[in-house]
Amino acid sequence: MPDGLNEFPDLNAVHDALAARFGSAILESTFVQKELSVRIKTESILPVVTFLQSEQGFNALSDMIGLDHPGTPAEGRTRFSVLYQLYKYPAHLRLRLVVDVPESGEVDSVVSVHKSADWAEREIFDMFGIRFAGHPDLRRIYLEPEFEGHPLRKDFPLQGKP
Amino acid sequence: MSFKDLELNMGPQHPSTHGVLRLKVTIDNEVIVRIEPVVGYLHRGMEKLWESLTYPQILPLTDRLDYIAAVSNNLAYVLAVEKLAGIEVPKRAQYIRVILSELMRISSHLAWVGFQANDIGAITVLLYGFEYREDFLDIFETYAGGRLTINGLRIGGVPFDLDGGLIGRIRKTLARLPKRLHEVEMLLNENRIWKHRTQGVGCLSAEEAIEHGLTGPCLRACGVPWDIRKDIPYSSYEDFEFDVPLSDQGDVYGRYLVRMQEIRQSVRIIEQALDRLPAGDHIAKVPKILRIPAGEVFHSIEAPKGELGFYIRSNGTDKPERVKMKSPSFINLQSLPSMCRGGIFSDVVSILGSLDIVLGEIDK
Amino acid sequence: MSKPPAEHHPFLLTRLDRFITWAQKNSLWPLGSGLACCAIEMIATAAARFDIARFGMELFRASPRQADLFIVAGTVTTKMAPSIRLLYEQMPDPKWVLAMGNCAVCGGPFPTYSVVQGVDKIIPVDVYVAGCPPTPEGLLHGLITLQEKIAKSHPTKVMFKPNARRTE
Amino acid sequence: MTSPAPFIFEFLIPLGKIIAVILYPMVMVIIMIWLERRVVALIQGRLGPNRVGFQGLLQPIADAVKVFFKEDIIQRNADKLLFNIAPVLVMFSSLLAFCFVPLGEPIRIGSYELTLWIAQSSVGLLFVLGMSAISVFGVIFGGWASNSKYPLMGALRSVIQVLIYEIPIGLTVLTVVVLARSIDLVEIVRAQQAGKVWYGFLMPVSAVVFWISGIAETNRAPFDLPEAESELVAGYHTEYSGLKFAFFYISEYAHMVLVSSLVVLLFFGGWLPPFANVAALSFLHKVPGFVWYLIKIMFFLFLYVWIRGTLPRYRFDELIKLAWKWLIPLSLVNFLVVVLLKLLL
């Protein structure tokens, strides 16, 4: 259990329930700045999100965030991460799930659980090139279809490829 | 040309798409069959740009996200940075932030009611809304020198203190507001055409709304009392007494009522903040070159459009590794197809308007 | 056809020019097109305090076919650029373009992969108004500058030499 | 006959009238455009055009001159013939209707009686209504020939709207015809003079229904769906530019003038001075009838602007419901009541 979490019994209960159900899938949990962040195995994202939504009441997906950290693969992690910022209403709890994605890997889409993931996943696909398996309509959302490259990757120049 | 499944392209240049949104609408005579929003026409690459800027340099760019309520973006960003860097903000600065962001909320809602009425054909309300808004823009101009994108906050506090003259001016402006709101409500509230166009249009149940991740006035119009100012207070919102206006209709009319009431609640908050404005510094001591130790943070606030959050990941240098903005309009717009289901073509305009989207924050 | 301008223009035509330009500069109908932040200030310019209706410019036309003035109010992105170009070409001659705001003038604070660095890269611009966003006073100054520019133009020349404006 | 007088009377005066019949609506349109922009501006707390000429009075003229020198675009896929015919048809029909709109009682100049209308016909009212209905063909042609989706939708909306609102117009006009026993506009006004009560006060329901339907016929707010800017860009004239667009624009205003004239003629005594029965106010008769007529028309034109500045726009289904559920039953009942009373009294 991460430090300081036991001062927040609600969140602690969620974490315990998650650990009890998906113990082997949880790679790491941190509790910094009063924000619980749980890193789980890539393939278990869909069951975890479904579990949190249906049994723990995390009924809103506030945001999905893509990350590119090209320096870290040496430490045993993959190039990309996808973060899920979940929110529980009306208890007002926040929970962050993290999955790691290799450069040409795929993540399971959570659109079937949270409708707001639709565009968020398209955005991450557009910006990072991470593919989401099972997404009904995975296309670029911001950039024109002919655009080459994925801008938020660290190796993409700010002013675009010449 | 067949009128069954006629495909209409609204935008990216269309008078009522609130900027450069494009809607692919399929209609069967006048009934909507399918509607697909296409965004990205204002994608400026903000998030990529932020990665190459220092923390204070990012601040003015956040103004350009939701440009109708610039201070809200500033507030979400500076709160996230302060949380990450562990900066303690003086109480006075927190109060001034509340005052500024509530003023922004009023001016944003005034602009909204104008746009919404204009979309439905009542041009006069648009001009009334903008005229009343000018008073608030005057306050911002006096405070920070800008009208729209005022860059009104700083990491660690606010750039300028509120002096007596400006406080008097804010009070005077607020005192004038109820009469003006009444004027707008007289034109709209009991107007049969307005009711026809808004009541029962774009309905969404509370469950559906939460499922879609809707936030802000659109969610509260469905009867869900979710207001981050109350639930997870930030910037001393816990000090103020205010109600969360609700409506159980879930339609466009409900959203209109909620926003009009929110203006009144904002007035309440500002008056309380002005009355109890604590003495002290208006900005904390923040190093010129702000280096934030590695870490990550997500902080969200209640912006006029909904939950506006910033995720910041720092790597120990003076530039962030990643800044991601959670934009309320981006999520709210996704629910447009569900809201328009079975509606009439004219409804698209009124539903889209009621979502109060700003393309700047959708496209980033 | 190397006529020196203005001085050697026939008298009657200059009278006619003055008459036409008087009408044109006093009835600039803008295209109701807003792209970003500047659009809000453009609307504020049309609203009660600044009221560009005084100059006969309040008829914001929704259709480019009926507009005279294209106020490019905001950031032009690469995705939007084809539409901007199309809108410009749909406008009937004589037409004018006003680049409002730093983004439309030169890309503004966004030197990024998706922003066109100035709308003059895709369409000709008559007047530039700087600011982020420009105040309504700034836009009004730009419009009055445009009126002065129109007053000095020679529409009859264009009439007798249809490609004059394009080759100028 | 050797004197030149008959020649003047038989040739020059009709010519002058023909010019007048074109000029009069034009002048009214110019005034109306100016009035609309100024009054709407005042309602909205603005100033409106005030830079060109005295108080911006020359503004419509500047607009007209500018439009005249604009490029005329016919897009490649348009049906060129219909595209060109449409604005002419709209303009022509709305101007032609003015032939039968009288401006006042005949004026005596010596032995010559100058009539203030081009043609007096026993079916004048029918002709005017017919002409104003023809303009809808121009709208259809324009919308269809543009070969573009928004104009087409605008044109369709316009057709349905005009067709439906013709019904209450017809029914309310019938009540007037029943009372006046004539479909000649001049005779209708004279009947009101003889009856001493204007039909608008005798049959307020007819007057109100006619006026509402008249607004719908002219496609004005709150019934401006065919050119609903926030939905259909510019409606049926989206693809029109330059002079052709100006034709649509002007004919819309000419139509408004026509409907206002009809309301005044049918229900508010045309050129008759008000308070004809009150002896103390008999000095009102000294004012020429034409002035009263203009004042009344101006009032209704002002109403147009006032309504536009106040009300939002109807939705399409509401618009149809309004006609079928309210205006048509109301005008039917009204017609029956008027006929019954007429028979009984």
Q: Your description of this structure?
A:
The complex is a heterotetramer of chains A (about 160), B (about 375), C (about 170) and D (about 350). By secondary structure, chain A is of the alpha/beta class. Chain A has three helices and seven strands, in the order αββαββββαβ. With about 375 residues, chain B is of the alpha+beta class. Chain B has 15 helices and six strands. In chain B, the strands form two sheets. In chain B, strands 1-2-3 form a three-stranded antiparallel beta sheet. Chain B has a three-stranded antiparallel beta sheet with strand order 4-5-6. The model of chain B has no long low-confidence stretch (mean pLDDT about 85). With about 170 residues, chain C is mainly alpha-helical. Chain C has a single domain, classed as 3-Layer(aba) Sandwich (Rossmann fold). In chain C, α1 runs antiparallel to α5 and α2 packs across α5. The radius of gyration of chain C is 16 Å and the shape is globular. The two termini of chain C are about 15 Å apart. Chain D is mostly helical and about 350 residues long. Chain D has twelve helices and two strands. In chain D, β1 and β2 form a beta hairpin. In chain D, α3 runs parallel beside α10 and α4 packs antiparallel against α5. Chain D is globular and about 60 Å long. Chains in contact: A-B, A-C, B-C, B-D, C-D. Chains A and B meet through β3 and α3 of A and α1, β4, β5, β6 and α12 of B.
Please give a quick description of this structure:
With 168 residues, chain C is mainly alpha-helical. Chain C has seven helices and three strands.
Question: Which terms would index this structure?
Answer:
heterotetramer, C: 168 residues, mainly alpha, Rossmann fold, 3-stranded parallel sheet, 7 helices, 8% strand, globular, D: 345 residues, 2 strands, 67% helix
Uncertain runs of chain A: none
First and last CA, distance of chain C = 13 Å
- What is the radius of gyration of chain C computed over CA atoms, rounded to a whole number of angstroms? 16 Å
Proportion in helices of chain A: 10-25%
What is the CATH topology descriptor of the domain at 5-108 in chain A?
Beta Polymerase, domain 2
The overall pLDDT average of chain C reads 82
So what's the CATH class of the domain at 5-108 in chain A?
Alpha Beta
Biggest sheet descriptor of chain A: 5 strands, mixed
* Count of structural domains of chain C: 1
CATH architecture of chain C: 3-Layer(aba) Sandwich
Neighbour order of strands in the largest sheet of chain A:
1-2-5-4-3
The main sheet of chain C orders its strands as 1-2-3
**Helix tally of chain A?**
3
**H and E string of chain C:** HHEHEHEHHH
Head-to-tail CA distance between termini of chain A: 49 Å
Give the count of helical stretches of chain C. 7
State the total count of DSSP E strands of chain C.
3
